[in-house]
Structure formats: structure tokens, C-alpha cells
Amino acid sequence: MTKDEKMPEPQFRPKKRSAAKLLSSEAALPTDDRTYEVRKINEIGELIWMPESLSKSERNARLLRAVELYEGLEPEGAAEGMLAAQMVGTHTAALECLRRAASLGQNDRTRDSNLKNAQKLMTLYAQQMAALNKHRGRGQQKVTVEHVHVHSGGQAIVGTYERQDERKGQGAAPPALENTPEVPLAPQEAPVRSKTRKRS
Question: Where are the domains of the chain?
């Protein structure tokens, strides 16, 4: 660097903070914990179809059931929370379609339409569950071993061995290996190379 060139000045980069924390800390959006939790419950409740004919007690029961389903999924973090709320909505919509398909006094076309909608919603729910499990690292993993080298005195397991991952201390213990008599493996001999002479 020559005398005429100046050293670049360091740029100030503020630490990134989430918008919710920033706004609440500066009292731009004042709220309390109870109001915040009620908003979360209402967000789940807005996904449920509640006809006006329902009594207040039945409405409350449906809302409590939806919250119970949400909490049963034990979401951790924003992504799981959003997905869990969507899963509750998908589940309740599928049940409503099935209920309508089973109600009396409808033609075949309406019943088939409700059953098709229920099938689509149940397929969507299965995809959401797979996405949740994948996010949590519970997806099925398959490892294929193509080459195994067992040296003299070594042992190998031949067959299928499955291991179930545990999450938060839950899950079954890995299956015990069966006690089978040991069958010695035949030692592998090194290939013998034939020596050829060049003829002159």
C-alpha cells in the first residue's frame, strides 16, 4: 500500500435482532404474556370451522381440543409451530369432510365430493407429518454396504440390522443380536500371479 492510498474505514454493522424482540423492547408494540398466548390460541381456533348454531360450550370444547392437538405435537421453534398449526387445521378439515360424507339425505355426487376432499386432506396431513419428522431428524435412513473385508480372526454380521433412533429418551432399545454358533470364515488366499518370461 502506498502513502497516497488510505486504509479503508471499517463499516459499522449492527447486530441483527428479531423484529418482535426489537419492537417489544422499545415498547413500540406493548403487550403482555396473556394477550400474546390468547392470540396464539385464536390463531389455531381460526382454522376450525365453527357453525353459528354451536353453543358457546361446544365452541370452547372445539377450541380446547384444537389446542390439545397442537400441544400434542410438541412444536419447538417457529417452523415446527407453523407446521403444527397447519396440521391441526388439516386434520379438523378432513374430519369435517368425513362427517359431511356420512350425513344422511345427500346425493351420491355430494358424498363423493366430500370423500375426495377428505382423501386430499388426509394425504396432505401425511405429507405434513413426514415433513415434521424429517425436520426433527426422524426420517428413515438406509445405508447400503457394498464391500466388506473381513481379515483373519475378524467377525462380521451377515443379514439385516435395524437401529431405531431415540428422541428425548423415548423409543425402544436396539434389538439384541441372536446367539448363533460361530461359523469360521474361510481364509482368503492372495491371488497367485504367474510369472512369464520374455522370449528373445
Answer: 19-135
Instruction: Name the pTM for this structure.
Output: 0.56
Whole-angstrom distance between the N-terminal and C-terminal Cα of the chain? 70
pLDDT of residue 2: 63
State yes or no: pLDDT of 32 exceeds 90.
no
What own/partner pairs with CB < 8 Å and gap ≥ 24 does 26-29 have? none
Q: Is 170 helix (H, G, I), strand (E, B) or coil?
A: strand
Helical residues (DSSP H) of 26-171, grouped into ranges? 33-45, 56-72, 77-102, 108-135
Give yes or no for residue 30 having a pLDDT over 80: no
Per-residue pLDDT, averaged over 95-118, amounts to 93
Distances (CA, A) of 105 to 49, 102, 133, 155, 157: 21, 10, 41, 69, 62
Residue located via cell numbers 381456533: 45
